[in-house]
Design brief:
Number of strands: 10
Organism: Streptomyces lacrimifluminis
InterPro entries: Sortase, Sortase_dom-sf, Sortase_F
Number of domains: 1
Strand order of the largest sheet: 3-4-5-6-9-10-8-7
CATH architecture: Beta Barrel
CATH topology: Sortase, Chain: A
Protein name: Class F sortase
Largest sheet: 8 strands, mixed, barrel
CATH superfamily: Sortase
Radius of gyration: 16 Å
Distance between the termini: 38 Å
Keywords: Hydrolase
CATH class: Mainly Beta
Strand content: 35-45%
Pfam family, one: Sortase
Order of helices and strands: EEEEEEEEHEE
Structural class: mainly beta
Number of helices: 1
Length: 205
């Protein structure tokens, strides 16, 4: 079984430069952004501009807590490689999640990306129970500024990897949102990868 079970396709042309960086540990960085793609499950469009809602200043995430599925995991920063794919969290630590370190931080306005393995070649991993989450469940992210960002789940959806809605998942937003992403579907031994991705859509409360 492959050591990397989450493949996130973020086209390079979706990366925009953000100057909204209040972190003391690094300067302004790219953030994953795109226009929302039409979707049958998306909310109807409104003529009014979307409200920004609650948001926090930029800060590095330190721990992800999901009480509903007994997750308490530290973060590691991940980068987007030359291929346009997000790097994988190390497979030798089954209790570790990664965030797109050059993108939006959890709690900051925009769409933050958090990825984790569903399993490894030897054991279930941090996001093994992610599919059990449901709308209304809450989880939190501890941050380097000593604040805690609390999120509520909006939906839990599965997408085939060959028909993954990049724009809908990674679209930039005026609200503070987050996506939890792992692998799903069947394991294809021929290509040593899963056939789908599970995505949890959530927003800051």
């Amino acid at each position: 079984m492959t050591a990397w079970t989450v493949v996130l396709l973020i086209p390079v042309f979706f990366l925009l430069f953000s100057g909204n960086d209040e972190s003391a540990d690094r300067g302004p960085a790219p953030r994953a952004a795109a226009a929302h793609a039409p979707s049958s499950s998306a909310a109807p469009e409104s003529s009014a501009a979307p409200r920004a809602g609650k948001r926090l200043p930029r800060a590095r995430p330190t721990r992800l807590l999901i009480p509903a599925i007994d997750v308490s995991a530290p973060f590691i920063g991940l980068a987007i490689g030359d291929s346009g794919q997000l790097e994988a969290p190390p497979a030798d630590d089954v209790n570790l999640v990664g965030w797109q370190a050059n993108g939006v931080s959890p709690g900051e306005a925009g769409t933050a990306i958090i990825a984790g393995h569903v399993d490894t070649a030897t054991a279930p991993a941090v996001f093994a129970g992610l599919s059990e989450l449901k709308k209304g469940d809450r989880f939190s992210v501890n941050r380097s500024d000593s604040r805690t960002a609390v999120f509520v789940v909006d939906s839990v959806e599965t997408f085939a990897k060959d028909d993954f809605p990049d724009q809908r998942v990674y679209a930039d937003t005026p609200q503070a949102q987050v996506r939890l992403i792992t692998c799903a579907g069947d394991y294809d031994h021929a290509v040593q990868d899963y056939t789908a991705n599970l995505v949890v859509f959530a927003h800051l409360v």
